[in-house]
Amino acid sequence: MRRGAAPGAAAAGAAMPGLLLGDEAPNFEADTTQGRIRFHDFLGDSWGILFSHPRDFTPVCTTELGRAAKLASEFSKRNVKMIALSIDSVEDHMCWSKDINAYNGEQPEEKLPFPIIADANRELAVKLGMLDPDERDKDGIPLTARVVFVFGPDKKLKLSILYPATTGRNFDEILRVVDSLQLTAYKKVATPVDWKPGDSVMVVPTLPDEEAKKLFPKGVFTKDLPSGKKYLRYTPQPE
Question: What does pTM read for this prediction?
Answer without folding.
Answer: 0.88
